[in-house]
Structure formats: C-alpha cells, structure tokens
Write a structure and sequence with these properties.
It is a single chain. This protein is of the alpha/beta class and 322 residues long. The chain has eleven helices and 14 strands. The strands form two sheets. The protein has a ten-stranded mixed β-sheet, sandwiched between helices. It has a four-stranded parallel β-sheet with strand order 11-14-12-13, with helices on one face. Helix 1 crosses helix 5. The radius of gyration is 20 Å and the shape is globular. The protein starts with a helix and ends with a helix. Bound molecules: threonylcarbamoyladenylate (TXA) and magnesium ion. The site of threonylcarbamoyladenylate has 28 residues, from strand 4 and strand 5.
C-alpha cells in the first residue's frame, strides 16, 4: 500500500495538470484531471492515441458520478450496486459540462469505480474524476505492472504509483447503458452471464460494426505484442512441430499442456488452466515473450466457455496481422 504522502503527491500532480499512472485491479491507467483539457491532451500525446478515442472517467464512489453522467437508470444502478467498485465500465449519458476531448465528442461518457486500494485512495484524495486509458502506447498490450508502464511511457509521465501486479489482468467489461437495451461493448472478466443475471434479462454483445461507431478504440489492431502472434488449435500443434523449418525458429508456444517436443528453438510456456489465472498472467507473459526476440508467438486456443470470452477476445485481437 502506498503511504499517504505518495498519494498526496500524486493528487497534487493531477491538480497541477500532470499525468499520473496508477494501478487498478484490471490494468494500470494513465490518469489526468478529467476536467482539465490541457492535461487530457497530454494523455493522447503520451500514448500516441488518436484524439477521437473517448476516455473512461474514474471516480471514487457513486456520489461523484453526478458531475459527469446523467442520473443512473434503475438498470444501470443495479449493475453499479452489483459490480462497483470493480472491473466494470458503464457507458452513460453525459452531463453537458463534460469536455469533448474526454468523450470524443459523443453524448455518452464511460464511467468506472475501480476497487484497487491505491486507485481508491488516489480518487478520494483527488476528490474528482480522473480520466484514464490503459497506460500503454496506442495498440500495445496494456500494462499490468509498474515496470510495464515505465517500459511503455517512460519519463513522458510525471509519476507512476506502484501497486505490484494487477489482480484481474484484463481491461474492464464495458456495458453501454445509455440506451434502453444494455449492450456489452468490450468483454471483460465480469461475464455477459453475470450481467444478464443481475439485470434479469438477456444482454447483447455489440456487433463489430456497431462497436466501431460507439467505441472507436475497438476497430484497430489492439492489445498486440510486437512479435507476430498466431492462435493455434490444440490438434494442429503436432503438425506445426513436424513441419516448422529451422529458419523459422526460435518460436514461443503458449499452451495449457505439457511440452510436446524439447528443442532449443521452442520456448514452451505453460499457461494456467483456470480462466482467472490465465487472464492474470496473459499480458505479462506476452510482454516478457516479446523481449525474447522469438520470430513468432503461437498461442494454443482456449476453451469456448463464457468465462473465457474476454480472453478469447484479447487473443483474437493480439493475433491479427499488423
Ligand atoms: O480496465 C479498464 O477499463 C482500463 C482501466 C485503466 O480503467 N482502462 C481502459 O481504457 O482500458 P482504454 O482507454 O484503454 O479503453 C477504454 C475503451 C476505449 O476503447 C474507448 O473507445 C471506450 O472504452 N470508451 C470510452 N468512452 C466511451 C464512450 N462514451 N462510448 C463508447 N466507448 C467508450
Ligand atoms: Mg487501452
């Protein structure tokens, strides 16, 4: 836990228009005062992110939401009560005063109450909304440690609060509650099932076309390692091992099972069998494999179950061609 002087220093930097990276239970965020246009501009510059991609505003508790969003509908309130503080972002109708640079000029705003104790302490001390995307360069893998934030953004930011490894490891579930029917815009470890069971109604996931309009951050290559990355079905691994050529090595192979072939050119990485543990490890594993100068990363496909949906989504995105 950070001592109060570091939290106080971070809050002061935010008040002065600075950039502070901080841990949440999902991934590290790159924070700025959500009411300070100049400060928010720095987020986009540090990330090299296009200006039309809206940011999530983080607040300490429900009392702070009214400054940013219209009052929650009964359905939105149900989700808030069930999952906040936690790895959930709600898209709500915004208050007229919210800066266009935060919302990408849309009429809606993404709001999240994170539960990480350092994020909570920072938000309470700062006392207002903190706009924060994931603390990585645009399209890169999100950082789940303070070291990863430094690797991504280095000294372009004023302070990194170190909270160790993030508990969840994948970005929050985003649910659009701005219209009558709730729609999941980005899957996360709070599953669609969990959301429909709280709302007691079926919940749709956004089609890719709709996602492009509502969530500009979704349509480009995202969450991608630098090394070319492919998904591979379990049954295809033996054939790959038989046919791979010496000049295609070394490769990394992320699997659930044991090593099938011992070879100095193949770096086997055994991934967890439980979805939660897999999610926790995924980005950190991709980041460390990226440092190894392998020519290709192969990732064994994961189960089809609902609890793996967010992981499948990120693996799919990581494995699209650059
Ligand atoms: O777990 C998370 O959500 C992390 C932590 C730091 O909170 N944040 C995060 O932020 O992943 P970012 O900016 O990397 O991704 C947020 C996504 C973007 O794809 C953005 O387009 C979408 O949320 N978004 C934000 N505001 C929106 C809005 N008003 N309507 C639709 N999509 C929105
Ligand atoms: Mg991001």
């Amino acid at each position: 836990m950070k001592n109060t002087s570091q939290i106080e220093k971070a809050a002061q930097l935010l008040r002065a228009g600075g950039l502070v990276a901080f841990p949440t239970e999902t991934v590290y965020g790159l924070g700025a005062d959500a009411a300070n246009e100049e400060a928010i501009r720095k987020i986009f510059l540090a990330k090299e992110r296009p200006f039309d991609h809206p940011l999530i505003v983080h607040v300490a508790d429900l009392n702070q939401i009214n400054q940013w969003a219209q009052p929650l509908s009964p359905k939105a309130l149900k989700l808030a009560q069930a999952f906040w503080p936690g790895p959930l972002t709600l898209i709500l109708k915004k208050q007229p005063s919210v800066l266009d640079i935060v919302t990408g000029g849309q009429e809606t705003i993404g709001i999240r109450i994170p539960r990480h104790p350092i994020a909570q302490a920072l938000l309470h001390t700062f006392g207002s909304g903190i706009a924060a995307p994931s603390a990585n360069k645009f399209t890169h893998v999100s950082p789940t440690t303070a070291e990863a934030v430094f690797e991504e953004l280095g000294t372009t930011i004023d302070l990194i609060l170190d909270g160790g490894a993030c508990e969840v490891g994948l970005e929050s579930t985003i649910v659009d509650m701005s219209e009558d029917s709730p729609v999941i815009l980005r899957p996360g470890m709070i599953t669609k099932e969990a959301i429909s069971s709280v709302l007691n109604m079926p919940v749709l996931s956004s089609s890719p076309e709709k996602t492009i309009i509502k969530t500009p951050g979704m349509h480009h290559l995202h969450y991608a390692p630098h090394t070319p990355t492919s998904l591979i079905a379990s049954k295809d691994i033996p054939l790959l091992l038989q046919t791979i050529q010496a000049e295609e090595l070394p490769i990394a192979m992320l699997t659930h099972d044991q090593t099938l072939l011992l070879s100095s050119g193949i770096h086997w990485i055994k991934m967890p069998k439980e979805a939660e543990a897999y999610a926790h490890d995924l980005y950190q594993t991709l980041r460390s494999v990226d440092h190894e100068q392998v020519k290709h990363i192969f990732i064994e496909e994961v189960p089809e179950d609902m609890e793996w949906e967010a992981i499948r989504d990120r693996l799919f995105k990581a494995s699209r061609q650059r």
